């Protein structure tokens, strides 16, 4: 075997079969093979079979090994003498031009030189040193770089191992969070089902009570009607009598009739529970839209705030252009946003205003003269004496509420043809309009209404989502 082959064989015997580099902290396993300690442990962590030898695949169930000090010492010696052995095998290098031994090295040209080459003008001002000295200097630099590269390789391996562990942890974390989410939504469904059951039971109870009141009132009204019919018959009989007999019975008949007339039955007042849905506002805020007012649509009597979030009615006409988009017959301003699809929600503060109207308006409605009722889907509130009345425009239906609204929410589902109004103060549904045939763009609708002498004039203000609400909206459903 030639010397070069012996040197290569020596390096092979001192090389780890896993990392293919000189041994570092070599350890011996029972089957007789030697590996770097770190390489062996890493292989055992990644292997499916416990304690398998990376080279011969023998199984070491106990994962036992011992430090191979002889190989460690031999490795250190081999690393030191290998460069010198290679140099001895190769022998001196000769200059092809001058046939002299090249014992010098030019740093500038990075080439070997003989004495004649060194004496030439070409290398007169170049940095030239003895070949042995230059080789030792570069070998030291290369060795330092090699050690740095090996260190970086170890760091990269550490990162790879950490990332693999992180990937495993990521999978575990995902499964854990998935289980938590499924459990929390199941809990929410349970709360909602229980809430639905309670609301329906409460509604049934109110229905039963209202029904009993109506039956009782109907019975009383029937009896009163019978008394009226009987009294009418008695009076008709008295009127048919001769004058002398009629006069004798007239007073008693009138007294009985007046007593019957005083018995006036009253209509039954029906009480119904508020429709308070658990967590409804949290869900609605998921579809919150930042609505602003469109100055081009505002009636000349309306005053808009600088941020286009509030509107109030003034006492004089504003100097504004009479453009086609502007309402001139009704105290109305529209929102800038146009909706042709999707789900949307916004809130309006009405405070203690005594008149207001909010909702949705068709983009195609005429802006001049009176507003067409078919183009508006709104809720109007106004105070009449001591009562506060809500009027649903599209349904032409009015109903009393125990106290004025201070803040209400409007929800629109374009595809489902659904509009709902919510009392934010009491966290309850006011009214819900279903199965509306929307055609074309819709826009938010606001009217502070024309005041009377007893009106409390306040602005209508579109609420802005708080930072807390903006963060919470992603906890229910994703934004559309």
The counted number of beta strands is: 19
Shape: elongated
Helix-and-strand structural type: alpha+beta
Mean pLDDT over the residues: 82
Beta content comes to 15-25%
- Our count of helices gives 8
Side by side, the strands of the main sheet go 7-8-19-10-15-16-17
Low-confidence stretches: 473-480
H/E series: HEEHEHEEHEHHHEEEEEEEEEEEEEH
Radius of gyration: 48 Å
- Distance from N terminus to C terminus (CA atoms, Å) equals 77 Å
Major β-sheet annotation: 7 strands, antiparallel
Helical content (DSSP H or I, runs of 4+): 25-40%
Report on this model:
There is one protein chain. The chain has 480 residues and is α+β, with helices and mostly antiparallel strands. The chain is 39% helix and 19% strand. It has eight helices and 19 strands. It has helices at residues 3-13, 37-46, 69-90, 115-119, 131-240, 243-262, 280-284, 467-472, and strands spanning 26-28, 34-36, 66-67, 104-106, 111-113, 128-130, 302-304, 310-313, 333-334, 343-349, 355-362, 376-384, 387-392, 397-401, 407-413, 418-423, 428-433, 442-447, 460-462. It has a seven-stranded antiparallel β-sheet, with no helix packed on it. Strands 9-18-11-12-13-14 form a six-stranded antiparallel β-sheet, with no helix packed on it. Strands 2-1-3 form a three-stranded antiparallel β-sheet. Helix 1 (3-13) packs antiparallel against helix 3 (69-90) and helix 5 packs antiparallel against helix 6 (243-262). It is elongated, with a radius of gyration of 48 Å. The protein starts with a helix and ends in an 8-residue tail after the last helix. The model is unreliable at 473-480 (pLDDT under 50).
């Amino acid at each position: 075997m030639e010397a070069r082959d012996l040197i290569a064989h020596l390096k092979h015997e001192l090389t780890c079969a896993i990392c293919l580099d000189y041994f570092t902290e070599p350890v011996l396993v029972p089957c007789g093979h030697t590996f770097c300690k770190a390489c062996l442990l890493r292989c055992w962590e990644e292997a499916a079979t416990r304690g398998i030898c990376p080279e011969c695949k023998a199984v070491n169930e106990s994962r036992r090994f011992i430090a191979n000090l002889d190989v460690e010492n031999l490795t250190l010696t081999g690393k030191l003498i290998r460069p010198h052995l290679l140099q001895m095998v190769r022998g001196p290098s000769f200059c092809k031009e001058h046939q002299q031994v090249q014992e010098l090295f030019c740093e500038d040209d990075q080439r070997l030189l003989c004495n004649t080459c060194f004496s030439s003008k070409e290398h007169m001002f170049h940095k030239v040193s003895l070949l042995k000295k230059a080789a030792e200097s570069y070998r030291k630099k290369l060795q330092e770089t090699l050690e740095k590269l090996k260190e970086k390789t170890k760091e990269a391996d550490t990162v790879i191992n950490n990332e693999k562990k992180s990937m495993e942890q990521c999978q575990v974390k995902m499964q854990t969070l998935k289980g938590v989410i499924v459990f929390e939504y199941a809990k929410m469904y349970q709360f909602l089902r229980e809430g639905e059951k309670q609301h329906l039971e409460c509604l049934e109870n109110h229905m039963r009570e209202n029904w009993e009141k109506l039956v009782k009132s109907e019975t009383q009204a029937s009896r009163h009607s019978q008394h009226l019919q009987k009294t009418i018959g008695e009076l008709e009989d008295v009127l048919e009598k001769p004058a002398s007999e009629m006069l004798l019975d007239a007073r008693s008949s009138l007294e009985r009739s007046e007593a019957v007339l005083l018995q006036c039955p009253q209509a039954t007042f029906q009480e119904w529970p508020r429709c308070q849905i658990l967590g409804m506002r949290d869900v609605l805020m998921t579809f919150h839209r930042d609505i602003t007012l469109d100055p081009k649509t505002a009636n000349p009597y309306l005053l808009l705030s600088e941020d286009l979030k509030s509107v109030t009615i003034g006492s004089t006409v504003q100097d504004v252009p009479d453009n086609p988009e502007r309402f001139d017959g009704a105290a109305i301003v529209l929102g800038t946003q146009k909706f042709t699809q999707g789900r949307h929600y916004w809130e309006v503060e009405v405070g203690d205003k005594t008149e207001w109207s909010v909702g949705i308006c068709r983009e195609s409605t005429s802006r001049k003269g009176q507003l067409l009722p078919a183009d508006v889907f709104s809720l109007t509130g106004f105070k009449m004496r001591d009562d506060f009345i809500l009027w649903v425009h599209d349904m032409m239906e009015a109903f009393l509420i125990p106290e004025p609204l201070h803040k209400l929410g409007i929800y629109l589902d374009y595809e489902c043809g659904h509009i709902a109004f919510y009392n934010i103060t009491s966290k309850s549904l006011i009214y819900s309009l279903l199965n509306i045939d929307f055609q074309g763009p819709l826009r938010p609708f606001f009217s502070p209404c024309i005041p009377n002498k007893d009106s409390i004039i306040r602005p209508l203000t579109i609420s802005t989502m708080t930072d807390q609400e903006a963060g919470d909206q992603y906890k229910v459903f994703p934004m559309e």
